[in-house]
Every structure is written in C-alpha cells, then in structure tokens.
Amino acid sequence: MIYDAFGKASELERGWGYSALVEYGGKRILFDAGGQYQTFADNVRKLKIDLKTLDFVVISHRHGDHTGGLAYVLEQNPKVKIYAPLETGSFGTPPSPPAAKALLRNAPGITPDLRYFNGKPPENLTIDSPWPGTKFTLIDKSVEIAPGLFLVRTVSDAKGTLELNELSLAIRTPQGLALIVGCSHPGIEKILEAAAQFEPRIYTIVGGLHLVDKSDQQVTEVVDNFQNRWHIERVAAGHCTGEFAQVELERVFGKRHDHSGLGEVIALPR
Fold first, then answer.
1. What's phi and psi for 41, nearest 5 deg?
2. Coil, strand, or helix at residue 172?
3. Which ranges does the record mark as transmembrane (predicted)?
4. Can you tell me the distance from the alpha carbon of 196 to that of 10, in angstroms, rounded to the nearest whole number?
5. Measuring CA to CA, which of 20, 122, 188, 242 is 20 to 30 A from 213?
C-alpha cells in the first residue's frame, strides 16, 4: 500500500487518495497513483519501489485523489502502458458527440461574435490531457488483458458521480478472484456482479469501498452480504471505506479482515 490516509506509525506520509503496487503472476502493476505528487513520490522512494520495472499502470477513474502522482510515474517510466476508463473529455479524449454536434446549430439572430468557431467548428475537437504525450489505453468494457488478469468496467448511477466510469482489477488466484478497487463509485456490489462474470468465486476485495458516506444500516447490510451472499474469504479495505465500515468488517471477518494501511503487504494465494 503506497498511498492512503491511515496505517501504522511509520516514516510514510499519509494523504487522501489511493495507490497500491500489485505483484502477481510475474507482473508488476501500479494501481492508481494517490492524490498528491510529492507525497506519492516520497512514499515510492521510501518503499524502494522501482517504477521503471512496471508492466503497466491501471487508473481506476478520473478523480485527482487517484491520479495526483501520475506525473511522477511518467517521469520515471515515460513509456509505461496505462489503462484508464474511456471518458469523454478525460485522459485526452474529445467532448461527447452530442456536445460537438450542438456546436453546428445555427440559432437565428445570433451575432457573428457569439458564434462558436465563427460558425465553422473543427472536425475533430481535442482536449489536452494533463499528461501531454502519454498514450492511454482506454477501456470501454470489461476485458482480460493478460492470462488471469481482468479489467472490470462499471458505470456509476449515484448522485454526484453519475455516468462516471471506473475500472477495477481482478486477478484469478487458486482460491478465486482478488478484486482491487479504487473508489467503488458505481457501488461495490455492482462491481462484484461484473467481476463474477469472469469468476464467481471472490477470494478478497482490496481498496476503497466508498461506504464512508452511507448510513450505518446500509454499511451493515453490505458487509453482511460480503459473507452471506458473496462468500468472500477476506477483505482488505482502504481509502474511502470509512471507519464505521472498518469496524463492521472486523466484526464480520475477524482475523480475515486484513488491515491495509500505508506500507502493509497483503498476501494473495498462489
């Protein structure tokens, strides 16, 4: 765990956001890049992580608390492959086609100085990425990217993040999927349903479950479902999971609740 806001006392610096290094099946994967460039960079150096040896990076979604350290990643490994969710207007993509089409409307009475592009908008509208020159591989559906490694795409229908696309990383292990999530904006059970299309057994969930803003009743129901509906073996929740949810995970999972603060290493079955 490279970046989070809690953990045991150490020289690592806490920050709001999330980042984890995943090593499995001969692959080294950076999942998200934290919320602040300097804090992320300092923690990477303190943990002696060599970003030059990454196989690829997964950015779960467009929010800054998951992309803040990406510039540092690119300084260390400028040609690294980066997977990100397809989002109109994000990661260097153009605006949505409906927005572009709306520019062509000729409203009677408009004066020439108020017309977009003098009435002749370019064929290809572009919006620069905050990371110029970076080639993102944009994902618009769930897909297996390497043997036993899956990117699970879900879309949020929640107030505040409506239509936000999010990627989760699922790893097939001998005991089921290890599911790494960023913020779970679409809902953690929605993500579980999508991941189960690849493998119905879920061994563990690692990362932000976004239960911090849910009622106690909702949190308890979700945590109970982890055990009773999904039959999940372990949980290593972080980031936006919330303190009450951590207490509930401890209640339900006991020793199978892996504390996953800064610097912790979560073992996966091999």
1. -60, -45
2. strand
3. none
4. 37
5. 20
**Is the Cβ–Cβ distance between 2 and 47 less than 8 Å?**
yes
> What would the pLDDT profile of 222-256 be if each residue is shown by its tens digit?
999 999 999 999 999 999 999 999 999 999 999 99
What distances in angstroms separate CA 228 from CA 80, 207, 252, one per listed residue?
Answer: 40, 20, 10
Q: What is 217-242 written as a DSSP string? A: HHHHHHHHHHHHTS---EEEEEGGG-
Q: How far apart are CA 267 and CA 206, in angstroms?
A: 11
CATH of domain 20-92+127-256: 3.60.15.10
| Phi, psi dihedral angles at 171 (to 5 degrees) | -120, 125
Question: Domain segments of the chain: what residues?
Answer: 20-92+127-256
Is residue 70 within 8 Å of 95, Cβ to Cβ? no
Given a contact cutoff of 8 angstroms between Cβ atoms, the answer to whether 197 and 158 are in contact is no
Residue 268, Cα to own-chain centre: how many angstroms? 19
- Residues 84 and 136: beta-carbon distance below 8 Å: yes
The strand pairing partners of 58, in sequence order, are: 31, 83
Per-residue model confidence (pLDDT) at position 125: 78
Mean per-residue pLDDT of the chain = 95
Cα–Cα distance, 219 to 212 (Å, whole number): 9
- Find, among 255, 253, 207, the residue nearest to 231 by Cα: 253
* C-alpha to C-alpha distance for 117 and 97, rounded to whole angstroms: 17
Query: What is the Cα–Cα distance from 85 to 64, expressed in whole angstroms?
Result: 14
Q: Are 174 and 51 spatial neighbours (Cβ–Cβ below 8 Å)?
A: no
For 133, residues 6+ apart whose C-beta sits below 8 A from its C-beta are: 78
φ/ψ (deg, to 5) at 24: -160, 140
